[in-house]
Amino acid sequence: MIRPLDPIIDREAVAGVMAQAADYFRLWLGRPAGEAEVDDFLTGGPPDTDPATAQRLGLFVDGHLSGLAEMTLGFPGPGDAYLGLMILSPHIRGQGHGHAFLAHIEATARASGAPMLYLAVLAANPLGRAFWEREGFAATGFSREDDSHGMGHTVYRLAKPL
To answer: What is the domain class of 2-119 according to CATH?
Structure first.
């Protein structure tokens, strides 16, 4: 089941998924996710966007929150959709849940009229990039350097036509 997440009711469960997916946060931040990352997921969004345009979705497997996704409309350009985060708990990875979760996100973006779905992937995450490319995303040629967490990341923007 996939449903919107409530920032109050689902906060503890969101923190739990982030704790389970510590491998990703260690790669990105150099540490496990904390309250700031939970807050950012539940209330933030890309630069110069209205956080109210974001959809925060939860993937429930066997009745437990096991995946998180945040998609914002209107970024990087008007009408576009941007997948700011999609993570799964390690115990459900490799079982087709990521594909199904992404299909739901794509359908939601398509229904809003978005012609493209964008996302960013860390150069340090080749497994993540391989997943996105298998799902039809391709490099846009846009990249940036990000040392905001002291990790010296190169970040690539990928896109998929909807």
So the answer is: alpha beta
